[in-house]
Structure prediction request, 572 residues.
Amino acid sequence: MSWDVVIGLEIHCQLATRSKIFSGAPTAYGAAPNTQANLIDLGFPGVLPVLNAEAVRLAVTFGLAIGADIAPRSVFARKNYFYPDLPKGYQISQYELPIVSGGTVEITGDDGTLRRINVTRAHLEEDAGKSLHENFTDQSGIDLNRAGTPLIEIVSEPEIRSAREAADYMRRVHELVRYLGISDGNMQEGSFRCDANVSLRKSPDAPLGTRTEIKNLNSFRFIERAIEHEIERQADILEAGGSIVQETRLYDADADETRSMRSKEAANDYRYFPDPDLLPVVIDDAFVDGVRDAMPELPDARRKRFIADYGLRAEDADVLVGQRPMAEYFEAVAATAEPKLAANWVLGEFTAALNRDGTAVADAPVDSSGLASLLARITDKTISGTAAKQVFEAMWAGEGDADSVIDAKGLRQITDLGAIEAMVDEVIAASPEQVQQFRDGKEKVIGYLVGQVMKASRGKADPAEVNRVLRDKLSGG
Amino acid sequence: MSIGSDDIEKLAVLARLSFEGDELGDITDKLASIVAFVDQLGEADTASVTPMAHPLDQVQRLRADAPDADIDRARLQACSDATEDGLYLVPRVIE
Prediction:
């Protein structure tokens, strides 16, 4: 039996501020335990929270990026529950009046068409600390460095229809927050994590079924697998005549299953009330206009422009736009170089070199004008594509700019037809077997022969020219 | 809105409070009368009134995003029952 799947996602995204949302303690990841939690984060009596302006700016940036409404007046509330990683006994969050309401995120639906997923709201809140269980037998260790780190919680409408769509939605939001510098989006460090609400019903017209919530999904692969498992689990129960219990479940990546978190069941009444320590946050039009004016072109718009203006393939545009520095690097190269050649090189040699050396685009030893001048030498046939790879490696290693490396290594392409013909003759004479195979109709052997000539020329011959001359001679007999 | 002993018992669990003897009945009566008093406010027509989030007629001031490094962990942990390697120790909590 097939079920109509209904999924809503809550994404917790740490904001890229230097200090915490309500205190001046630093937010850098990986410090020694409890060295980044001050009196306010620890909930000492008598302290007062003061809101970080940058957290507000980043939340507004996100709201504008998804076309949401920015609340002219929003209010912080206390969400009350007890847990050792929450020293105050409440989390400061927003409840009735969040800073961001509405907006949409575009995803690719299961049928391949564009779907707009509505966002209900995105509110500002503080993160909790961390509980560590290893190294302790009947105790837990609490590190409150993360307590008070600013988050936005982005809540979608229950409009997502499959595990794949959920992962795609998460990817799009992740791309957006990284692109805009709202968050570093580091999923291993917990900067970007997701809870999924999943329910099934017999048809799209039927009332919503009972939902379960899967907590703390911190990778695109996990979210897809966890939701698939949960759909299967719920379908099995319903098809056996059972009913779904509304509960919180935890995905166990090692066992590849979800299991109930019973401790959360009694605590789902948070008794929100406005935080008397914080005044309403008022955001005027001038502030919103200032944020809007400072925003770069958004990834969706840029992706469409790359496809339309540069004739790139959708997959290539996707990868380039995935990281803003990469998109900007490509555009700088494509400003003078042929765009498709530029895309191939940025996604090929350049990306491979970055990955190999663990280098960021900004620190790459070959800058965009350097790569553009190398590509210009391919286009004007000074060097072959093969030789260009050698030149690139030398430039990467700091041996000079494109032209000086080409001269130093003597890589200037052989355009002298006589010289190419001489090398082709040599290769034909040395490869009787392959020549026979080609003449017997084994077309692919031409690749081998071209390769031999290129090798003889030490990569300096124009492969297209070599190919032409080879075919000429072989068919001419 | 009325409030019964069931509500009070649930709230007590959420707030980590416990009762002795006949305290439950006494507290239920007192809280019920407070809630009844608050209910009187429902008689006022508030349709055109913006809900008040704070009694002060002021807006939140914002702080510049500047970290201060002045955190003395040893001093902050001096009032804690148990610490180890910089971590606060609590009875084991695990899902």
User: Anything to note?
Assistant: Chain A touches chain B through 57 residues (CB under 8 Å). Chain A has a mean pLDDT of 92. The two ends of chain A are 67 Å apart (CA to CA).
